[in-house]
Amino acid sequence: MLAALAGGALYAIVVTSPPSTQDKHITVLAAASMQNALDDINTAFTKNTDVKVIAGYAASSALIKQIAQGAAADVFASANLEWMDFGSKRKLIKDDTRVNLLGNQLVLIAPKDSKLDSVAIGPNLDLAKLAGDGSIAVGDVREVPVGKYAKAALEKLGAWQAAAPKLAMAINTRVALTMVARGEAPLGIVYTTDANGARYCGDRRPRCVENLDVLRPGQSAAAEVTPSVKIIGTFPADSHPAI
C-alpha cells in the first residue's frame, strides 16, 4: 500500500516506503502539470542523495487508476484532492503521509503568433466567439483536473453553454498545450506553469513523447513546445475551486 502526503490543496504526494540500499531508486507518478518543477527537483534530489528518481507523468486520474490496478510507485503527486481522496478511500495510499504542496493559476492561452494579446476574463465571457471556427483545447472536463477547473470557471462566468461544443478535450494539460502550440487550436485553458515552460520539440527528440495515455517511468510528457504559446488571460481565482 502507498503511503500518502496530502491535505486540502490541489497538489499532494503519496509515498510508499523509502528506497532500500540495494535498490537505489524511487518511482514517482505525478500529474503532467508538475513536470517542469519535478524534473528540476528530481535532478537535485539524485545529486544530493545518489538515489535515482524514475518519473512518469500523466493525468492524475489515469495515474491513480494505474496504481489501483497494481502499478508500483513510491510517490504519487496529484493535481487535485479528488483523485488523492479516491486513492485514500481505496486504501491505496498511507493517509498519514499526505501533504499539500503547491498552488497554480488557470489561464487562457493562444499560439505565440496569434493576433489575440489580452482578454479580460470575467462574467459573460464569450469564449466561443473568440475561438471563431476553431476549438478550445483543454483537459477532459469529466476527469482531468485542469478540465474540471476549466468547466467550473466557464460555468461561473456564464460561458459554459456556448463554449462546451467547441472544447477539444485532451488526456492531460500537456497535450492541450501542445495542440495550441502547434496551431491545432486557437485557444486553450491550462495551468500557468505549463504555459510559462512551453517549448516545441519539432524534431521529435526522445524527450518529446506524444499522445500517450500514461507515460512510462523515465519518459517525459508530451508538450515541451515551441513556437510556444502566450498567456492572454487569467481566470479569476474565485471562478473555480482553489488550485
Automatic annotation (TrEMBL):
Q: A single GO CC term, please?
A: outer membrane-bounded periplasmic space
| An MF annotation (GO) of this entry | metal ion binding
Native organism: Candidatus Acidiferrum panamense
**Family listed:** Belongs to the bacterial solute-binding protein ModA family.
Q: Name one GO biological process term.
A: molybdate ion transport
Q: Whom does it interact with, and what assembly results?
A: The complex is composed of two ATP-binding proteins (ModC), two transmembrane proteins (ModB) and a solute-binding protein (ModA).
Q: Which Pfam families match?
A: SBP_bac_11
Recorded protein name is Molybdate ABC transporter substrate-binding protein
Name the keywords, alphabetized: Metal-binding, Molybdenum, Signal
Superkingdom, according to UniProt?
Bacteria
Q: What PANTHER family does the entry give?
A: MOLYBDATE-BINDING PERIPLASMIC PROTEIN (PTHR30632), MOLYBDATE-BINDING PROTEIN MODA (PTHR30632:SF17)
